[in-house]
Write a structure and sequence with these properties.
By secondary structure, the chain is mostly beta strands. Helix content is 9%, strand content 32%. The chain has a five-stranded antiparallel β-sheet, with no helix packed on it. A two-stranded antiparallel sheet has the order 1-4. A two-stranded parallel ribbon has the order 2-9.
Length: 116
Amino acid sequence: MTLTFPTPTEKLNECHCNICRRYGAVWAYYHPKDVRIEGPTTDAYQYGEKNNSFHRCANCGCVTHWTDAKDENPPEMGVNCNMLEKEELRRFERTVDEDGTTPQFPVNKARYEHGS
């Protein structure tokens, strides 16, 4: 599967809540319309209060992203940047949310080039 998304403009979030810590996820947040997901259907898992669906690749099992499980028009989703190549991942600053209680991180704004 392939996820296509704009280069992160905000710090990545290394969340240490119960589920993200186990997944080893480092999240960048986007509006869902700014992320294109192609390829096989993902497997999804909902944890705790079931607010989010954590999606994983059906072939390799890696967690790729999360989506809002309750809102039909969600304002954000998370992309697991630990799926990037190491050299690319090192380019971005990150913050560590030790207990997973930070209410919300900034959503990356897509930068579109306007041309003729």
